[in-house]
Amino acid sequence: MSSEHRVVIVGGCGHVGLPLGLVLASRGAHVTLLDIDSVKVEKVNRGLMPFKEEGAPELLRSVVGTRLDATTDQATLREADAVITVVGTPVDRHLNPTVHELYKNVDGLLKHMKEGTLLVLRSTVYPGVTKLVYDHILRQGRKIYIAFCPERIAEGRALEELVELPQIVAAFEPAAMERASQLFSLITPRIIELPPLEAELAKLFTNSWRYLNFAVSNQFYLLAESYSLNFYRIYEAVTKDYPRMQSFARPGFAAGPCLLKDTLQLAAFSGNSFFMGHAAMLINEGLPNFIVSRLRPLGLSERRVAILGMAFKGDSDDSRDSLSYKLRNLLEVEAREVLCTDPYVMDSSLLPLEESMKRADIIILGAPHSVYRNLTFGTDKTVIDVWNFWKGKQ
Ligand SMILES: NC(=O)c1ccc[n+]([C@@H]2O[C@H](COP(=O)([O-])OP(=O)(O)OC[C@H]3O[C@@H](n4cnc5c(N)ncnc54)[C@H](O)[C@@H]3O)[C@@H](O)[C@H]2O)c1
């Protein structure tokens, strides 16, 4: 794809769309970020990131107003050679896709797109959705090239990973495959072509694999701790100089907007026979309950508990589906008071770190933010640190 090509990213001011837009713009494309959130659009156009992402503020400043802009105006779709949509597939509360919503969203885009445009589905979709979209567009007699190219970045490392990871590209027609491969060749020479259904499963396998890995570690953690054994002594012993155990993840909250959702989408697709996925959910989602059950003997109704870190993972400002909030809700039923703090999450109910630490009898690490690394605690405090982040300080 040559530098004059124009790309519109739908949902472009979010965690997937914006990093992708920045990288494409820095590699010569002209990118417009289309988003329904006017506050984010305005922020991006002023050169400000709406969320934390390593290296993004500098890159945004270098391309905004020249190779990249943001808008809420759908008319911009008319200018595009390639439209990439990162807006999630609408699913019902059982995570099955709601096709009418899906078609409505696609029709909303098609109304503005010119013939011959490449339409890339980039969000994680329920298996079969690319085919539904392809057939839906064919039925309308429109000449639109459809591809599915799943995003595999981890938030916070998006810019580095976008150019380092191979890109999976899938399409039903060779011409669409070719167009999508050319587009993603802007960011990497490593393109992996797959049939769409296999690419959809590839993405769900990736996230479920990670979720299951965390579940294994969390299960082992629960097992060792429930016998009052030192999990991390075992962990260090089995991983030290032993290559086959290097993939043993560390325990911790496995949360966020993707891992659980995608594991459950795979479970729905399997006709509810993805037993390991459901088991992983019980273990990972059960970790906050386990923490509360371990604290109960301390007389929670008399104790003030602080949760340090409300984001779903360390060094992030993203609190979507964070297990720290689940922990807070559980503790609010039983503890005298729950004091929550986070340096990055925008939430008016949060308190300053110093106040939370000073007033709490029990301190729980909710997200291992680097800024917490050198905290010290009085001997009168009980500290719960599932990550072993403060090794030796408990
Ligand atoms: N966050 C990740 O690390 C990650 C990684 C891989 C895949 N995904 C998948 O990517 C998809 C998007 O995730 P995200 O984290 O970027 O979400 P996000 O909420 O950060 O971003 C979505 C953006 O889309 C906008 N939007 C919503 N509806 C719109 C519409 N109809 N038209 C235009 N804009 C609209 C929102 O305002 C928001 O800015 C999800 O399907 C997710 O599963 C996310």
Please, could you describe this protein's structure?
With 394 residues, the protein is α/β, with parallel strands linked by helices. The chain is built from 13 helices and 12 strands. The strands form 2 sheets. Strands 3-2-1-4-5-6-7-8 form an 8-stranded mixed beta sheet, with helices on both faces. It has a 4-stranded parallel beta sheet with strand order 10-9-11-12, sandwiched between helices. The mean pLDDT is 95. Nicotinamide-adenine-dinucleotide is lined by residues 10-11, 13-17, 34-37, 40, 86-88, 123-124, 151, 153, 155, 257-258.
Mean pLDDT: 95
β-sheet strand percentage: 5-15%
Low-confidence residue ranges: none
Q: Which ligands does the model contain, each kind named once?
A: nicotinamide-adenine-dinucleotide
> Strand order within the widest sheet?
3-2-1-4-5-6-7-8
Multimeric organization? single chain
**Count of individual helical segments:** 13
Shape: globular
Separation of termini?
55 Å
Helix content: 40-55%
What is the number of beta strands? 12
Global structural class: alpha/beta
Q: List the secondary-structure elements in sequence, H or E.
A: EHEHHEEHEHEHEHEHHHHEHEHEE
The whole-angstrom Rg is 23 Å
Largest sheet, in brief, is:
8 strands, mixed
SSE arrangement:
Layout: E1 6-10, H1 17-26, E2 30-34, H2 38-45, H3 56-63, E3 68-71, E4 82-85, H4 99-110, E5 118-121, H5 129-139, E6 145-148, H6 158-164, E7 167-171, H7 174-184, E8 191-194, H8 196-226, H9 231-239, H10 259-269, H11 275-295, E9 304-308, H12 323-334, E10 337-341, H13 353-359, E11 362-365, E12 382-384
Parallel strand pairs: 1-2, 1-4, 2-3, 4-5, 5-6, 7-8, 9-10, 9-11, 11-12
Antiparallel strand pairs: 6-7
The chain binds nicotinamide-adenine-dinucleotide (NAD).
The site of nicotinamide-adenine-dinucleotide has 22 residues, from loops.
